[in-house]
Design brief:
Bound molecules: adenosine-5'-triphosphate
Pfam families: ABC_tran
Distance between the termini: 36 Å
Number of helices: 8
CATH architecture of the largest domain: 3-Layer(aba) Sandwich
Strand order of the largest sheet: 5-6-7-3-8-9
GO molecular function: ATP binding; ATP hydrolysis activity
Order of helices and strands: EEEHEEHHHEHEHEEHH
InterPro entries: AAA+_ATPase (IPR003593), ABC_transporter-like_ATP-bd (IPR003439), AztA-like (IPR047748), Metal_Ion_Import_ABC (IPR050153), P-loop_NTPase (IPR027417)
CATH topology of the largest domain: Rossmann fold
Number of domains: 2
Protein name: ABC transporter ATP-binding protein
Radius of gyration: 18 Å
Organism: Azorhizobium caulinodans (strain ATCC 43989 / DSM 5975 / JCM 20966 / LMG 6465 / NBRC 14845 / NCIMB 13405 / ORS 571)
Length: 246
């Protein structure tokens, strides 16, 4: 397997205050990797940096030459503006924009693909609904349909299953498994360890620095979870920038 992502002494943060410290490691192409850790561990920060939305303070991320259009990023639901006046159909169609271009126009084949994506997430009949009127689960289905159309090689999901009922979670998990079967690289921030143990072969346990990274059963061993929790309790939000990032 070739390497899709390589982190070299990666330090990330905001105004020089690191949120992720000195991360080294690789994610292989086709990996299905869970990113776990306490609140404030730097998980979302890492996702943003991989997507290209946040520049490293120090160190680097090598994406193996991947075109930015081949990276799909689903932010935490709290970061998505549901008041934006757009319907489900257009929201899903946005998944094509990066390839077709904003003014490229949508042809018959594209319309068929949009319809297929909407059907794949079980949202037929919702095409003309403004996204502001959707339930949380319906909104997440809409965003997954958009991801389907993006057809990306690297898929970044930030807490994709939070506050979903069992049926919605199972349906969306099927899509993640489908992407994994298609040898796409999938990283997902998750808090549910049972879900991670059942469905994610690899885990990065993060508590600002890597506590463990490897096969899920080993990474989520009780001693590692305890270490991550202790590191989380010891955080000092007012600490000075670390030297490597200064
Ligand atoms: N835009 C920002 N400006 C300043 N600090 C930020 C910003 N975003 C995040 N942080 C800080 O960076 C640290 C890591 O935050 P991050 O959101 O990456 O954690 P997380 O592991 O995703 O947490 P959670 O599980 O609560 O979502 C936190 O201390 C947070 O307060």
């Amino acid at each position: 397997m070739s390497v899709q992502l390589r982190f070299r002494d990666l330090t990330l943060g905001y105004e020089r205050h690191p949120a992720v410290h000195h991360l080294d490691g690789v994610v292989e192409e086709g990996a299905l990797l869970a990113v776990c850790g306490p609140n404030g561990a730097g998980k979302s920060t890492l996702m943003k940096a991989i997507s290209g939305a946040l520049r490293p303070l120090h160190g680097s991320i090598d994406r193996a030459g991947l075109d930015p259009r081949d990276i799909a990023y689903l932010p935490q639901s709290a970061e998505i503006d549901r008041s934006f006046p757009i319907h489900v159909y257009d929201m899903v169609a946005m998944g094509l924009w990066r390839r077709a271009g904003l003014f490229g126009g949508i042809g018959r084949a594209d319309r068929a693909r949009i319809g297929e994506a909407i059907a794949a997430v079980g949202l037929e009949g919702f095409e003309n609904r403004p996204i502001g009127t959707l339930s949380g689960g319906q909104m997440q289905r809409t965003l997954f349909a958009r991801l389907l159309l993006q057809d990306a090689r690297l898929i970044l999901l930030d807490e994709p299953f939070t506050a979903l009922d069992a049926k919605t979670m199972s349906d969306l998990l099927d899509l993640v498994r489908r992407w994994h079967g298609e040898k796409r690289t999938v990283l997902a921030v998750l808090h549910d360890f049972d879900l991670v143990r059942a469905h994610f072969p690899q885990t990065l346990l993060l508590a600002r620095s890597a506590v463990a990274w490897g096969p899920t059963a080993e990474a989520l061993a009780p001693e590692n979870l305890l270490k991550a929790r202790r590191m989380g309790e010891a955080w000092d939000e007012t600490a000075q920038p670390c030297e490597a990032a200064a």
